[in-house]
Design a protein that fits this description.
The protein is α+β, with helices and mostly antiparallel strands. It is built from five helices and five strands. Helix content is 52%, strand content 16%. A five-stranded antiparallel sheet has the order 3-2-1-5-4.
Length: 192
């Protein structure tokens, strides 16, 4: 349990998510890494180039700061500390409780990410230089996928977990492993 809780701290070292845009005019895909407290270029100037492209279709710039960047680090530290305390207390039911709380927080974080992507891809400037319309004459949206790959005009947008997400998931799974190991140990002690 303690190791699982400590793995959450890897989110301060590794990005949580990665979004890339591939297109014929960009031999090397443009990309951004999303951390719990910032968004960074995958390669130098990627975000600048993404913002330049997006400007022409009326999309907002990728923000340098969001309120979530103040909240997420505190939540991760709190859940890590809580997991360490639960590990020392050693109550099996608390392992599952911690896992459930982490799952709820993860789902809330993904929903928040979806809302941000929706706003980013749908709330377009009416005075944009270039406007693409669907078959009914409605403006196209440019929302990147929450998870997976999607074609947006001539771009292939990919959105997938990055290294930090795997540490997070592993830490959560270790809390379940701790639950089952503790349960087996208790059953073994009851038999002897």
């Amino acid at each position: 349990m303690i190791i699982g809780a400590l793995l959450l701290l890897a989110l301060f070292v590794f990005p949580l998510w990665n979004i890339t845009l591939e297109a014929p005019q960009y031999p090397d895909p443009l990309g951004m890494n999303i951390w719990i407290n910032k968004i960074t270029d995958q390669e130098p100037n990627d975000i600048k180039n993404i913002n330049l492209m997006n400007h022409y279709v009326g999309m907002k710039e990728i923000p340098e700061h969001m309120p979530e960047f103040d909240i997420f680090p505190k939540v991760i530290i709190a859940m890590s500390v809580m997991g360490i305390i639960i590990g020392f207390v050693g109550r099996r039911g608390l392992y599952v409780t911690w896992f459930v709380v982490m799952s709820i927080l993860g789902a809330a974080g993904m929903y928040d990410f979806y809302l941000w992507e929706y706003e980013y891809g749908h709330n377009l400037n009416e005075n944009a230089a270039i406007k693409f319309l669907d078959d009914q004459g409605n403006p196209l949206d440019y929302q990147p996928p929450l998870f997976g790959t999607e074609v947006i005009l001539n771009f292939i947008a990919r959105s997938y977990p990055s290294t930090g997400a795997y540490f997070l998931f592993s830490g959560m799974m270790l809390s379940l492993v701790a639950f089952y190991v503790d349960k087996k140990e208790e059953q073994k002690n009851e038999i002897t």
